[in-house]
Every structure is written in C-alpha cells, then in structure tokens.
Amino acid sequence: MDSFIWDKDRKSRTGVAEAVLCSHKSSQDLQSIIRFNIEHTNRVLFTRLSAQQWEILPAELQQQLDYDKCSLTAMLNVAATLAPSQEVCIVTAGTSDLAIAKEAQRTLAFNGYQAPIIADVGVAGLWRLMDRIEDIRQYKIIIALAGMEGALFSVLAGLVRAPIIAVPTSVGYGVSAGGELALNSALGSCSPGILTVNIDNGFGAANAAIKIINQFTTSP
Amino acid sequence: MDSFIWDKDRKSRTGVAEAVLCSHKSSQDLQSIIRFNIEHTNRVLFTRLSAQQWEILPAELQQQLDYDKCSLTAMLNVAATLAPSQEVCIVTAGTSDLAIAKEAQRTLAFNGYQAPIIADVGVAGLWRLMDRIEDIRQYKIIIALAGMEGALFSVLAGLVRAPIIAVPTSVGYGVSAGGELALNSALGSCSPGILTVNIDNGFGAANAAIKIINQFTTSP
Amino acid sequence: MDSFIWDKDRKSRTGVAEAVLCSHKSSQDLQSIIRFNIEHTNRVLFTRLSAQQWEILPAELQQQLDYDKCSLTAMLNVAATLAPSQEVCIVTAGTSDLAIAKEAQRTLAFNGYQAPIIADVGVAGLWRLMDRIEDIRQYKIIIALAGMEGALFSVLAGLVRAPIIAVPTSVGYGVSAGGELALNSALGSCSPGILTVNIDNGFGAANAAIKIINQFTTSP
Amino acid sequence: MDSFIWDKDRKSRTGVAEAVLCSHKSSQDLQSIIRFNIEHTNRVLFTRLSAQQWEILPAELQQQLDYDKCSLTAMLNVAATLAPSQEVCIVTAGTSDLAIAKEAQRTLAFNGYQAPIIADVGVAGLWRLMDRIEDIRQYKIIIALAGMEGALFSVLAGLVRAPIIAVPTSVGYGVSAGGELALNSALGSCSPGILTVNIDNGFGAANAAIKIINQFTTSP
Amino acid sequence: MDSFIWDKDRKSRTGVAEAVLCSHKSSQDLQSIIRFNIEHTNRVLFTRLSAQQWEILPAELQQQLDYDKCSLTAMLNVAATLAPSQEVCIVTAGTSDLAIAKEAQRTLAFNGYQAPIIADVGVAGLWRLMDRIEDIRQYKIIIALAGMEGALFSVLAGLVRAPIIAVPTSVGYGVSAGGELALNSALGSCSPGILTVNIDNGFGAANAAIKIINQFTTSP
Amino acid sequence: MDSFIWDKDRKSRTGVAEAVLCSHKSSQDLQSIIRFNIEHTNRVLFTRLSAQQWEILPAELQQQLDYDKCSLTAMLNVAATLAPSQEVCIVTAGTSDLAIAKEAQRTLAFNGYQAPIIADVGVAGLWRLMDRIEDIRQYKIIIALAGMEGALFSVLAGLVRAPIIAVPTSVGYGVSAGGELALNSALGSCSPGILTVNIDNGFGAANAAIKIINQFTTSP
Amino acid sequence: MDSFIWDKDRKSRTGVAEAVLCSHKSSQDLQSIIRFNIEHTNRVLFTRLSAQQWEILPAELQQQLDYDKCSLTAMLNVAATLAPSQEVCIVTAGTSDLAIAKEAQRTLAFNGYQAPIIADVGVAGLWRLMDRIEDIRQYKIIIALAGMEGALFSVLAGLVRAPIIAVPTSVGYGVSAGGELALNSALGSCSPGILTVNIDNGFGAANAAIKIINQFTTSP
Amino acid sequence: MDSFIWDKDRKSRTGVAEAVLCSHKSSQDLQSIIRFNIEHTNRVLFTRLSAQQWEILPAELQQQLDYDKCSLTAMLNVAATLAPSQEVCIVTAGTSDLAIAKEAQRTLAFNGYQAPIIADVGVAGLWRLMDRIEDIRQYKIIIALAGMEGALFSVLAGLVRAPIIAVPTSVGYGVSAGGELALNSALGSCSPGILTVNIDNGFGAANAAIKIINQFTTSP
C-alpha cells in the first residue's frame, strides 16, 4: 500500500493524534500500517479492528498490540498506568451499550485519561439513575450512551451541570433499529446543551472530550 | 352531497360513536352533514374543524354547535355536565401540546368522562413530573402527550402502574419536526407496555381509552 | 459483568416484572444474568433468546429453563398451570405471524393469563375472519398481528367492541419489507381506537394488556 | 410558447389521447395551448387546472371550456351524452376522496364511458361495503380510491372478480399524510391482483381502464 | 400446524386460486401444507420456495412437485400442455430480470395461459426494443419488468396500445438498490396508463392479467 | 452587511466567476451586494432572485440589472451579444422544465456561450425526440432537463456521443414530487456516462459545461 | 394559561437558565409568560419569537423587551455590557447563516459572554477561511454554522485545536433543503471530535458552550 | 441463455463500448456471455465480477481473462500498453476508496487512457491535499472519490479549474453508511460545477470522462 500518508502532525495541529479506522481496510493494508508504525515507534490507536481482522494478523504483529475484543480496539506502544481522574465519566443506559462505552474508555486511556463506566442506568427504572446521580455529578464532562429511544440523554441533561456528549448506539429493533432514533432523540431533546456524535462513535466522543480538556487545562 | 353514509350503529358495534373528521371536507359537504344530524337529533362530535371552516358556516348552524377553537372540536346536541372521574388523566410534556390534549379531553367528555389535564411536566425538569406523580397515579389510564424527542413516555411508563396511551405531537423543529421522532420514541421505548396512536391523534387516544373502560366496566 | 443492575421492584412499581431482552447480549453476560436469577430464585422471562444463543449455553443452565424455539422465549422458575381465561385473545393475519404471536402468548402465560391464538384470518379471504368473529368478540382485549399491508387492524377494529392492540410484524417483501407498512397502517387507520406497539413486539403488547387488566381488576 | 409540441397521434398509437397537465404551467403557456386547440378544433382534456389558474383565464377562453371545480378538469369540444355502461365503476373509501374520483369519472367520460361513483364504503364500517358489493360486482373493472391506511383495496380485492385499479389519495395526517401509506398498502396488499397508480392519479387510473377496454373490445 | 385455513373458494370468488407464499414459513409448516393438498388432490402453486427450503423437503414430497429453481416456484397436480396464446407477453429490460419474469410466466401457465418472454430490450440500446416492438404489439396485455431506473416502462407505454403492468425488480446498486427507484419510475411516469405492482411481484402481475382476461372473455 | 467577502479570484482559480445565490438573503443584504458590485464595476450573475425580492429593490438598482422573471436571474454589467455556438445544447422533457432550462441558458450566456433550448421532447411520445435527435447530435455537450420519472436521461444517453449533464427538475406530484425521483433516475440509469447535478440546478449544470469547455479549448 | 410551570431552579441545577421557546405558542400564552416574568423581575431569554408574534404583542410588553428581528430573540431585564472574551467564536460558511449565528451570539450574551461572528468563510473559496484561521485559533470553543453540504465542519476540525460545536442550518435546496445534509456531514465527518446540535439550533450550541465554560472555570 | 442481445454498435453510437455488469447474473449466464465474446473475438470489460463468481468459472475461461480482484473487473482481448496521459487523474479521500478508484482506472485503461491515482488526500489533514494540488492541476478532468461526509468534493472544486466527476463511495458507518451522505454532499455542494455519478460507480465516472474526451478531441 504505497498510497498511505501518515498525518504525523495531527496531534500538534488538532490536539488529538491520528487513529486508524480499520473497517473497510484489507488485511494487507492493515499489516502495512502496523509495520510502518512499529518501525517508527509511533504510539497508535486502532479502532473497529474486528475479530476476523485480528485473527488473521501474523502472530508477530499481534504480540506488539494490546487488543481488546469487546471494544474492538488495539493500542501500539502504549504502556502508561493511569491515575484516577475527575475529568470524564461514561454513563450507559443498558448493558448492551458496553462495547461502545469501552471504545470511548480506551480512547480516553490512550490519551491519558482514566474514565469510569457507570452502566445500566436507563430511565425505565429511574431509581437506578437517581442512585448514581451524585457520583455522576463529580465529573466535568459526561459521555452518555443509549440505544432504543435514547430518553436517557434528556433526563440526564436536566439533572447535571456537566455538558453531555451523547453517543447514540445501534441497539434496538423495529423503529429503533440502527440507532437513528436514539440519534434524533439526542439532537431533538427538550433539554438544552446536549452535544451529539455519530451512531456508535465512542471514539469521536472521547476525542471531543479530550479537545475540551486540552483547551481548558493548557494554554491555547 | 348524496354520497354520505351515516354509520349509525357504530356505537353499538364498537363502543364508540362515529365522529366527523372535518379536514379535507368542503364547506358544502360539512353543512350537509351538520344539517342531516340536526334533523335526526343525533349527538355528534366534529374534529379538526378549522377556524376557517368554522367562520364560513352559516350563523344558524354555528348556534347549534358548541365549538372550541383551541382543540378545533365542535359538539352537537351534547349538554351533559360531567362528574369528576378517576378513569383517565391527560399528561403533557409542554404547553405547546395543549391543543391536542384538549381534543382528547373533549372527546372523553363527549363520551361521558371528565378527565383532568396535568400540563408542562416534561423531563427537562424532572421535579415537575415528580411533584405531580402521586396525582397521576390515582388514574386508571394515562393519556400522555409529548412532541420533540418524547422522552416523557419512557420515564412515565417506568413510574406508574397504569397503561400509557402515548400521543406524539407535531411540536418541534429540525429532526423533531412533524412528530415522527416522538412517535418512534413511544414505539421504541425501553419501558414496556406503552401503547401508541398516530401523531396529533388526541381523538384516537380518547377512543381507545373509552373502549378499554367499556370493556371492563360493562359486561362484554 | 459487574455492571448489571436488577430492577427487582419493577413489578410493584409498574405492574409488570422486568424481563431480559437477550439480543445484543454476549453469551457471558447472559450466563451471569441466568446464574444471578437462579441463585435468587427469581421468576424470569427471557425474550429474543436466539437458537444460537441457546445452543451455546451450558447444559446445566439449559436444564433450568423452559425454552420455546418458535417464540425465542425462555422462562425460569415458572411452573403454573393456567386456567382458561376470557381476558385476552390473540388474532393473526397469517401463519407467518405465529412466532410473534407466541411471544405474546408466552408473556401472558408468564404473567398468569392463558390466551388463545386465532390464526390465519387475514382479510384477503374475509369469510375466514367472519367465521371466527363471534369467538373473538368473547374477549376483553384483542392483540392483533399482521404484516404486509396490515389491513386486518382496520377491519377488526370496525367489528368489535374490544380495544385492539396492534402488533405489526416484519412479514412481507418490497414495500412491505420490515414491518414499517403494517405499523403505519395501524397508526393511520380509519377505524378509531387502535393502539400500536413496535414492529414484532409481541412482548410489549402482552405487557400493555396485563397493565390494563391489573388496573381494572385490582384496586389501583 | 414556441416550444410546445402537440402529440396528435398519441390516440392512434396508444389508445388514449394526449391530455394537458396544467400544474407547473404559467397562465401564458396555458392560454397558448388552449388557443392552439380551439383553432385546430381538437377535443382536449385539461387536468389539475386549479381555481386560481381558471379564474385568470380570459372570459373568451372560459366560455369554450366545460370546467368542473371539484375535479379541477376542463374539456374542450366535448359534447357527447353518454349511455349507462357496465365497464367501469368507481368506489371510494370516504367522501374526502371525491375530487380525485371525479377526475377519474370525467376522464372516462371524455373517452366515452359513463362510470358511477359508489362513495363512502370504507372498511371502518364494513356493512357499508357489504351493502353495495353486489352492485360493484356488476362492473368489469373497479377503480378504487382510498387515503389514510388504504385497507379498502385489500378487502375489496378479496371479494370481487374484477381487477382493481387502486388510486391512493393524499387524505390523512401524521403517518398517513400525503398518500404514501395508502400507496404502499395497495402495492403490499395480501390480496393478489391489485394494480396501482400514483397518488391522486385519477386520470391515470381512467386511462389504464380505457386501454384495457380498448384492447378487449376492439381488434388489436 | 393446526392454524392453517385453506381458502378453497378463492378462485370462484375472485377468479384466481389461492397460492402459497413460502417465504417466512418453516419447513414443518410447508410440509403440512403440501401434504394437505396432496391428500385433497388440489392444484396448487407455490411461490418464493427457496433452494434451501426445497432441498430439505422429503424426497417423497419433492417427487410430487414440479419445481423451477430459477423462478423459485413449484406446482402440484398441474399437467396441462398449453397452446400458444396472444393474451399476454412478458418484456424485460435486462437478463437480470429473468427470475421474476419466469415467476410471472409460471403463474400464467398455472392458470392456463402461455406467455412468451421477450428479454433484454432495455432503453440503453433503444434499437433492441424497436426491433421487437411489432411482436410486442400483437399481445393484449404487456407485463414489463425493469430494475435500475425503470425507464423501459415510460418508453414502452408511449409505443403500444396495450395496458402495461409494470413489475419493478430489485436489480441495481447505490440509489437503485432494492427496486424502489424502478417502482417510483413506474408510478410517476410521464406516460399515462401504466399499472404497477410491488417490487419483484411477478406473481401479482400475472394474477392481475388473469383477472382482466377473465372479466373480458367470460360472462361476469 | 459587513460580513460579506467577495471571492474576486474565483474565476482565475476555478474557471467560473462567483455568482450570487439570492435565496435565503434579506433585501438589505442583497442591496449591499448589488451596490458593492456597481461600485467595483464587476460583471455579476444573480440567481434565484425571486419576483418578491426583485419588486422591493429600489428602482435605481433595478435599472442597472438585466432581470429575467422566468429564470429568476439577473445580470450586472453584461452587454455581450453572442454568436451561435455548437458547444452546448439544452434539451427538456416538458414545457414545465423551461424555467430551469433558462437558468442554464442565461448562465451560459453570462459566460459567453449561446446555447439553444430544444424543449418538450419527453419520451411519452418518442417520435418528438427522434425528430430532433440529429440536431441534438451537433452539440459537444448536452444539458438535459426532466422531472417526473426522468426517463429522458437514459434514452438520450443511449442515442448520442455527447456527455449528458442531467438536471432533474422538481416537476411532478405524488411519488415524483420534489425531483428526487428524476434525480435518482439520472444517477441509477442503465445508460453509462450520465453526469448529474442537484435538483433544479441549471446554474450548476452550466458551470460544469463551462469548466469542460475551458479545459479543452484553452491551455490548462 | 394556568398550566405553566416555571423551572426557576434550572440554572443552579444545570448551569443554564430556562429560556422560552416561542414557536407553537399562542399570543395569549406568550403574554401570560411575559407578564409573569415582569412581575417576578426574572431575567429571561425568548427564542424563535417570530415577527408576527412580536407585532401583535401589546406595546407595554414590547417596551420591556429587547427584541432582535434578525435572530428572533428577545431579552427581559438584561442590561449588562459585556467585555471582550476569548472563550467562544462563531464561524459561518455563508451570509445566509447569520440569523442562526446571531441566535447563538445573543444566547451567549444573555449568559455573559461576548462572542464575535466570523462570517462567510465557506470552503468554496478556501483562502477566505485560511485568511482568518489564526484569529479563529485564539478561541477556546468554536461554534461553526453551515448549510448546504456542510463541508466547513470537516475542514475546520482538521485545522484547529478547539472543540467544534457544529450547527447545521436549513440553507440549501434540492438534496440539501432543510439542513439534514449539513447535519449528517457534521455527524459523519472524517475529522474526529466534532460535536453536533439540531438543525438551526444556535440556542442549543450556545448553551452547550456555556456548560463547558462553567465546568472548567468554576468549581463543579 | 438465449435471451441475451449484444449491443455491438454501442461504441459507434455513444462513444463507449458495452460492458457487462456481472452482479445479479448467474454463473451459467456469465459463461454464455464470455464464450460468446471469445468466439466473436470481442474486446470486453466485465465489472462487479465478484471473487465468488470468478472462482467458479472454468479454468479455460479464467485463462482468457485479465482479472483484478481489488476492482472486481476483468478484461477480454485487451493487450494494449498505455502511454502516460494528462487527460484524467483519479483522487481519493482515503485508502478505503481504492477498490472503486481502480474500477475507474481499469475502465479508462480499457478505453485507452492511463490515469494515475492520487490517494489518501482527504480534508481531515488539509496539508495532504495541498501538497499534491499542483500535480492534480495538471489534468484536464478529475475523478474524485470520497465516502463518509464527502467534503473533499467541495474543497477540491474550489481549488482547480478542471471539472470534477464525483464518485461517492459506500465507506462509512452510522449516518454515513451506504454512501448516500457522500452522494448528497457532491450534489448539494457550495462549490459550483461538480458532476456526480451513482454511489460506487467508478465505471460510470470513467465512461463520462471518455465521452468528454471523445467529444473534444475528435470531430463530432
């Protein structure tokens, strides 16, 4: 793959390093990219690296990567142990949202931030959310994930001071299949101040959170 | 309009009387229908009778009708004073849902049931709903109205024992314009047991409530 | 799966017990949930438990569950024999709707109500429906299932006093593929008083029926 | 308007004469077309000639045209009195479908066929249809019109031997607004043998009926 | 499958016999239906009987059926040899439309009509259509099939006297994937008098053609 | 309007000068832009300048502009008389497409190219197109306009060597309302080599034609 | 309007005060709300207060309000003069986005932040953006507005460190009409870290920016 | 397959030879077509010939074909070695667009034009595009490919004089899945003069480019 151009300055330019979206890429292209980055000792995050794509990678490459099969992410040359942080907290409506929640969590970790996941607090049983609301209020930014009708976004935004980054997930069936309904519920919410990213885009939500933190904790 | 056929047995057959949906009807057709029913001393409910349609009706017909310009409903030969009832309660997310809420209320009244409207308890300020939740719990059936993202339906269904008849309203803009989003939020809710009718269909919600009451309070 | 929160009070709060929607859940998560409920001797209903998910469960867990491969439901700790009941009747347009009809039937059974299925009475041969209409009229609530263009909902609603809970099914092809057409036919019906749930949501229809029965046969 | 080309041979080529669809045409263009046809003594049908377009035509042109404000059609040089015919019958679900029904009726008349309209036999009150079904069965082709959920098409097709030409109408609101739902109900019907035309296309339905009659009553 | 109701009078009532749509049916249900009809010596047409469904049928049932793997149709107790007929001709835009064309052809054959297929006459090479147009003009009804943008329908309808029954096919990719584009081209055609059925519905097109022939060649 | 930035180098950079899209602009903003360009003696094309916008412009500004109410375009400081040219020809399916055809024609004229309009050659009467096909073949680029089902694009592309720039128009009703159907017919055509622009975008089609001519008749 | 409930604690709970969305509200309801807030000397922001709604307000109420007819916002009891700030900058692709840009600007001003508008820097002329990019880089948060295809969002996000809050606007025609295309371009961008709000929701974008600032400049 | 009609004159008529779209074709049909063309020594291009279709072709046929598994194209009787050319350049936003880029490249090669691919110059890192812009400016026509939000089309069109033929690709997820978003971004671009083909239609883009070159480099 001679057509590949590494955007090595993206971090200094935009505050977040380039990551490799693995879907739609052939195994051959993936291997070229991994080898290139091993050679240059780059720290790299790989997202949407499917189990099938992972399994056919040569063992020598697998050994260099820290792969997580739930979130379908892998990291290269990342060894930091993170200290607890009060910057970002990840909240999910159901257990089915965990894969995407972990994509966000791993992306934050790759960038140096440890973020807890508070799961299964959807509004069908409002007490589950209310039981955890004080914990949630300790964080400066909330990444919230919900599929189906996405009512969690509106309720949460009415209860906390933190900005909500809504990640609609493709969990549901019938009219809620594919995540479009949860997406529109975030966008069309009666609670002002919700910010939205693409369906299942835990990576993008984490990137946005990092950009916010960068801007407000370092000089611009 | 010689092509008009009155379904005079609908009440005995289905439990709810035929009503006249006025939209898409010419003034001439409307007048024929009103006169026909005046002659036969029928009790009739007219829905979606727009201000324009109302204003060009002859005064002699207007005088026979009890018209409500907010809900766009009119009644003919209906004079009952209703006693308070614990059967149905109407709950709205915002003040913009009131026109449709009143269509439901007037339809219930036409059929003999007084139902209160508890308005403006949308989930952006959850305390507004929690303040009224005990009142709402006193009723056997809840008709809930919400536009925008319709998160009220899911939250309410998780808090009460009564069946929820959700009426999505066409209140909103951008992705929530037209009511489709609120409709899908009712259908795709994570809270089981929500029943849905068409967008802005306060009349249908009231009819369904009446059918339920009829079935369970009279012998089938 | 440490993130799982059991909503043990849902039944007392809403009248229907929490059920487990198995789709989008990993085998590991499912096993945790099943073991948790075996330990606590909870009565539980599992829905959308696919054949693949079922087959890879350990035999020891399978033995505890009453699994039905047509409706993809399983029950834990449910042993009641039900007496015939006149509360709910399930009506289907075609034989292809049977899987969802049985999901509704099993959900009702889990909650203590026996409901018959009257199948294959779609309107292409109206006599099939008319032959059974008197039987259908014996029930207080009708759960009706139809795919394709869903004309059954409108015809049925014009013939009976009972409220109709319409379950659109994803049976069809071309413009009727996926169930959206049948869903909209239920919502947009010319017969007033039809109540609708999500596509293929037999579980939700049964829950709504139970909520209605609870409200009208027990003190609120 | 020098760019206008009259398809004078369309009748001999396809069996139906060219008609003038007036929507999207300026008053100037309309006048040119009318004058051209007056000069050539052509028999012409004008469709979708709105009240506004009609009112601003010069009186001299209005006097030459037989305009019907309900169906928005006008005829030029058409004077035939028609004998009753058993070829085509027009059936409507509601009174709101009458404008389009009359467009079909006038188009048939322009081509020499008298067709009765049997109106207001929608399936919400099935007896209304059953009362007229023997009359309807006397005709060789049925043009059926319905808006909302269009259930009439399926029921009718299961009851008669004649081919049904379904004309979905833009009568409805919420999910049935615009006629798309009725259109899809005709296309996706469980009753085989329904033929469909565009929404509100009474003209097209009549043309198709005439083509059928032409083929089977004259040598090809 | 005790819930199966055979509509044995459909032929006398509507002019076309009931057929069995095999998609969405389990193998067990299919076998019940086949055995039932073998026992009653019924003539039956099975449609959308997939290769997978066919292969797992017991050999004893396979031997009774005349199966065509291209059109996915099977016939039971049908042995007629048909004489050439000038009633219906089937025209396709491309070779990819042949499977659906043969579904129409086999449905016509089941009902006693032999219809030729004139294939690959799409408008990208207009001369292919013009070369065959005189042949096509010999038939009383034309069933036309096209996928992609469906331009064949409009061109053909402007060239012949016969009514066109348009069958949009799900041939295409990008904006024409699934057949919706070809469907809408048939419905929205600038050529009047095109009649449309559902996407890939060769069966329905043939049924409609038979209903037309029945009405005009036998006394009603 | 101090926020307005004139892209004075666009012509040298891209080969086409910046034009002013007037829709969504207030009268005040329009006047600022016109005065700015009068002062700088710029040659400017204004598109989608509605009759309402035109009428409320001060007479002093109107006098400077060459306004065409059919195409809703205006030109400033453009006085060239054009010689006939064989570069581009504009073809329309119906007379209703003329406004957009003239937008393309005026945009070409503004850039120095005279292009004829060959109108009303839609495929419902194929002979109208065939009568003019030799004329059309004289041009190097064809801009084709069609609404409804847009079959003209496919037929034309199969008959000529010139590249076709398809402009779908918003002419139609029901499924063809708004131009989406004609757009998709151009994109999904079975005839290869059709190039498409946005619905009603005569301006864009002309710009593309000019870019092609610039590239091939001047040194790059 | 006795059903109106003022959420007076929203600011302390969520960091942003309740505002009044005026669309869908009757003049009578609006007057009640304005008088209520005059009586309680509340600082209030009114959004989407149309010219028609404004003009029929009594002069005594108009005099209390600071109304801006471009952004359709009004403020009550707001007199602060703001100091320049480096927190937020508003960037627009075209001049047609200014009304929504000013809604965001006024909402920020109501909350105490002065934000400049850098307008007309869409990517059709990339130099316009590059000329201003250093200015834009001085701000901590960027609110970006674009209609049509919304390419500005992706380009900008690749050039700056600040988080981008994208406001898609309903500027465009054909496939870009209504803002859905610009919305999806923001959500589906190849540049990570873009955050999106509903179409034309300048108010929501400003609210989100304020929530971010609140969290990072005050103790949580 | 006796129904196959070779359009042998298409090249002389339209300037581009007929190609064979292999999707939706059975192996048997494909073999017939290949053998037919081997016998007639035709030069043929096969597109969308999937790996599965390729693998089951008889070895004797495979040996005659030049198959490229990335672009899924095969050529028969094509042996030309091409000289470098300045006519067309192919530009892609990402490496995931390469398969379609190569379909365009191979189609151009089949017609005698060598075109380079400049890959991975999407706008998230604008410098990648700016680094190559002078190279790109050397070509007369640019075929640009992008998936996701397709912002490359607008930026590129503002930077070069060449006409842009935009090929939206089905690369993306969530709101950008399937290519519809990139397609609409090309159509709705703020940069005038972009020409668009169907999603993933590299073949069509190449054909259009060839038609342009043919028209301007040979006498018409």
UniProtKB/TrEMBL annotation, chains A, B, C, D, E, F, G, H:
> Which InterPro entries does the record cross-reference, listed alphabetically?
P2CMN_synthase_LarB, PurE_dom
PurE domain location is 86-218
Sorted alphabetically, which Gene3D superfamilies does this protein's record hold? 3.40.50.1970
Matching SMART domains = AIRC
Q: Name one Pfam family in it.
A: AIRC
Point out the coiled-coil segments of this chain.
Answer: none
Give the matching PANTHER family: PHOSPHORIBOSYLAMINOIMIDAZOLE CARBOXYLASE-RELATED, SLL1489 PROTEIN
Q: What is this protein called?
A: Nickel pincer cofactor biosynthesis protein LarB
Q: What organism does the UniProt record list as the source?
A: Paraglaciecola aquimarina
